[in-house]
Write a structure and sequence with these properties.
This protein is mainly beta. The chain has no helices and eleven strands.
């Protein structure tokens, strides 16, 4: 069964850091680009970042550029999102996704979703 599982979310103070992980099972993640998305209460799900299959290309939303870093380890069938200098507006459920082919317009080509992990930034 094809599955993505996120972990690493939690409660952190403003300015703090978290590292989210995305573990794939039942399929080879290195056949896909990987996207991270988030959905805050009352808002639509939005794309945060994407990394292509070879990890040679990364894409970031303007709101997280310079603070978040996406990476992947194909040998572990996993991906990561390092989040630094967190702000209250980063509070959301974060999802990883397997994305078809590449990161161009990645929000429209999601093949599989994880179940999400809650990130809360609050003092």
């Amino acid at each position: 069964q094809k599955q993505l599982v996120e972990s690493g979310g939690g409660l952190v103070q403003p300015g703090g850091s978290l590292r989210l992980s995305c573990a794939a099972s039942g399929f080879a993640l290195d056949n896909y680009a990987i996207g991270w998305f988030r959905q805050a209460p009352g808002k639509e799900r939005e794309g945060v970042s994407c990394i292509n299959i070879s990890a040679g290309t990364t894409v970031y939303a303007d709101s997280v550029k310079g603070r978040f870093t996406i990476s992947r380890d194909n040998s572990k069938n996993a991906a990561y999102l390092e989040m630094n200098s967190l702000k209250p507006e980063d509070t959301a459920v974060y999802y990883c996704a397997a994305v078809l082919w590449h990161c161009i317009n990645y929000v429209y080509r999601v093949s599989s979703w994880g179940q999400g992990t809650q990130v809360t930034v609050s003092s």
